[in-house]
Specification:
This protein is an alpha/beta fold. It has ten helices and six strands; from the N terminus they run ααβββααααβααβααβ. 44% of the residues lie in helices and 12% in strands.
Length: 217
Amino acid sequence: PEARDIAHHLHPYTNPDLLRENGPQIINGGHGIYVEDNDGNTFIEGMSGLWCASFGFGEQELVNAAITQMQKLPFYHSFTGKTVNPAIDLAEALIKIAPNGLEKAFFCNSGSEANDTAIKMVWYYHGAIGKPAKKKIISRKRGYHGVTLAAASLTALAYAQDGFGLPLDFAKHTASPHYFQDAYDGESEADFVARLVAELETMIADEGADTIGAFIA
């Protein structure tokens, strides 16, 4: 299976030369916090399968719920006013625990898609209120926001941008709030914070506040 994977599967977030040299790690089972590979090795999955299995693997209650839903309706969409009861239930539950002022849940397939959608909403909102020039979005250097075209433009990390013609010109990057790495010699934490605030204010002034649509953190 390793050779078939190398031959046919283009992996995201992966160096293809290293994959070809070392081969893939094939995960074929999981229980609780553990996953098991094809060689029988067991690992603690500390990232919960990229945060998509935070309740663990092989949890029977979740398995049974999935089987029940698959038998009833395996998939449906929310376009053109359509919806399904689980989406209504989840939206309501999320809003009940969300910070004050948030009234709607918009479902996406990934963090990258969520941030691309947020960018679109920012642009659409400002256009709707007669301020279409407010397109620029400020993010911080070394901040990660995703790897799609728009989200990777905000991701101020070289591996997400080099070779892809990114960032797109709507993205503006200000300093990273990493005191231990970026503070000047002898600079207090308070002075460091003040310097970063001043840099952000200067960027907004130089770009023009009437062109700034949002800041993402």
